[in-house]
């Protein structure tokens, strides 16, 4: 816990430094002040699981749904009644017990009432319940093949290194676990015992020789290089090494992005827009990658962040007091320049007082 809190304080300090350096106007954001007290709160009360504001913003859908039938005369009352109705509905279809005044007993709703929720996935989703997440498959059920046909453009020839293996068939995608899907182009971390290596999937093969299908990945290896000065992320370089790897050696997937700064990739208007699943003649902008050899590991990825941090192995220096002073001065200058900018006059330049006087004199002479 002590190590975690020290790391958290370091990253909070760095984030606040870069925010203030970009513009000192960020001091008006109350959430940033709360961050300063987050480590002490975790140390005293435990992990701050409710600090995810995105989850609370999802509740806006419930607010909108409750506001549809309001006549706006008493919106607060209408919302309260809608919330009360939703709560009662959730209580009933979940099998909640009701107190019967006449019989003075507690009674359960009948199966016809609870089946509305139990046997209806649409009703479950409307009420925010995901049965697939609750009743997820056990770990022994993976990897699992997705029943998708391999397109002709994706069909690969059997690599020479695995020609000796019998009954190998190419598959398009497989689920490594409940949340990760493997397919061509995905970057994976492979456990080699002494170290972890990064590779990109070229094709996926299935062996049906045993009772349970086995899956293999034909991958291309990548070398971990230093930290990129522009992105401040770990660099990857493509190698010529290829190998057949069983899925049990895969630790997980990582988010890898092309190093466009090294490749000097340009943004061009060359991508055909798709409308209702049909290509059109309208072209939109896209990044044209110049090579397929240089990449960076996206260490800011929220998915499987521990694996990204372990592979990237980045070190972050604490912000010194002098850096804070210089950063705050820079942020104040940026904020001052934003305040002093003239207001937009829609391209119309105002006339000066002298010009107005000249116009008046000209009109008098006439």
UniProtKB/TrEMBL annotation:
Annotated PANTHER family: IP13529P (PTHR31912), NOTOCHORD-RELATED PROTEIN (PTHR31912:SF34)
Organism per entry: Puccinia coronata f. sp. avenae
Disordered, as annotated region: 340-366
Domain of life per record: Eukaryota
Protein's UniProt name: Uncharacterized protein
């Amino acid at each position: 816990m002590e190590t975690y809190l020290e790391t958290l304080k370091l990253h909070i300090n760095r984030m606040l430094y870069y925010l203030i350096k970009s513009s000192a106007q960020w001091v008006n954001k109350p959430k940033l002040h709360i961050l300063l007290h987050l480590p002490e709160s975790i140390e005293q009360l435990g992990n701050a699981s409710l600090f995810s504001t995105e989850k609370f913003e999802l509740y806006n859908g419930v607010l909108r749904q409750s506001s549809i039938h309001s006549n706006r005369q008493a919106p607060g009352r209408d919302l309260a009644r809608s919330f009360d109705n939703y709560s009662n509905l959730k209580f009933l279809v979940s099998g909640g017990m009701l107190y019967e005044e006449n019989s003075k007993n507690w009674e359960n709703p009948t199966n016809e009432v609870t089946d509305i929720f139990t046997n209806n996935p649409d009703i479950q989703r409307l009420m925010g319940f995901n049965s697939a997440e609750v009743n997820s498959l056990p770990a022994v059920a993976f990897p699992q093949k997705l029943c998708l046909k391999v397109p002709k453009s994706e069909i690969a020839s059997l690599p020479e290194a695995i020609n000796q293996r019998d009954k190998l068939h190419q598959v398009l995608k497989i689920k490594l676990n409940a949340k990760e899907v493997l397919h061509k182009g995905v970057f994976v971390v492979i456990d080699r015992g002494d170290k972890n290596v990064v590779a990109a999937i070229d094709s996926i093969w299935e062996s049906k020789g045993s009772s349970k299908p086995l899956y293999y990945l034909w991958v291309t290896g990548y070398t971990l290089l230093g930290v990129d000065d522009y992105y401040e992320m770990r660099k990857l370089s493509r190698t010529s090494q290829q190998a057949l790897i069983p899925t049990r050696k895969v630790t997980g997937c990582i988010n890898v992005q092309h190093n466009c700064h090294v490749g000097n990739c340009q943004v061009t208007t060359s991508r055909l827009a798709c409308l209702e699943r049909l290509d059109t003649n309208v072209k939109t902008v896209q990044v044209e990658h110049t090579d397929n050899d240089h990449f960076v590991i996206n260490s800011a990825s929220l998915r499987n962040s521990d694996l990204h941090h372990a592979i990237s192995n980045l070190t972050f220096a604490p912000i010194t007091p002098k850096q804070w002073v210089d950063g705050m001065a820079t942020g104040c200058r940026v904020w001052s320049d934003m305040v002093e900018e003239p207001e937009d006059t829609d391209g119309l330049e105002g006339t000066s007082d002298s010009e107005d006087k000249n116009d008046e004199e000209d009109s008098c002479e006439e």
